[in-house]
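Troubleshooting: if your tokenizer reports a length mismatch, compare your output against this known-good record of 257 residues.
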Amino acid sequence: MAYQDVLTPLRDKNPLVHCITNYVAMNVAANVVLAAGASPAMVHAPEEIADFTPVCAAVTINIGTLSTSWVASMLAAAQLANDSNIPWVFDPVAHFVSGYRKAVAQDLLALRPTIIRGNASEILALAGESGAGKGADSGDAVEAAKGAAQNLAERYDAVIAVTGPTDFVTDGSQSAQVHGGSPIMPKVTALGCAQTALMGAYAAAGPAYDAAVGALSHFKVAGSQAASKAQGPGSFQIHFLDALAATQPADLAGAVT
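Known-good structure output:
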């Protein structure tokens, strides 16, 4: 299956994606997943995980706003995903800013995510290298994190997606760069977190590497289309959701090298 072909089964299957994400991202992520053609569920109570996670087609875990109960849910959902052969995507948001956050990220990493999506600073730090990240914002170029991404992919048998102006994806044996998007995108809160949720929808519909490349391509293509109509960050959000819904598999083919 080519990466652009994953969008067709995604829309045909309308997979249920279990999104444990942060307070800032919930609404944006849900709208993005819906616009692309999948079904989001923002379930995070520990008491529901055992019943809910196994019936989902994918799980996404984003550590943007942590609390003790949410961490319990994240760890339980990741373990259940593994036990049920359900793909899961890990977004280690600013995992280097506190000891607590770093420990949670390492515990989740030990459960071997299917896909890890982060900015260059997050990927560098996750691989044990130093970076220049400031909170959730990257201070490093994607190019600088390629070696760290390769290292993580080989160590954890995972697909690593490093996001930035030009995204980089590798599974340790193959790699791709994804082009497009718009400089407006970082000015809209939670779009990166929403991309993780969309990547879960793609992972429910195709192989992990193709899913990561396909989700990144979908974002880049829709971002470029939205930017051509938007007057700024506010109107961009409206046009972006419309573009996600309008994008077709053939539109994705030109985004990747």
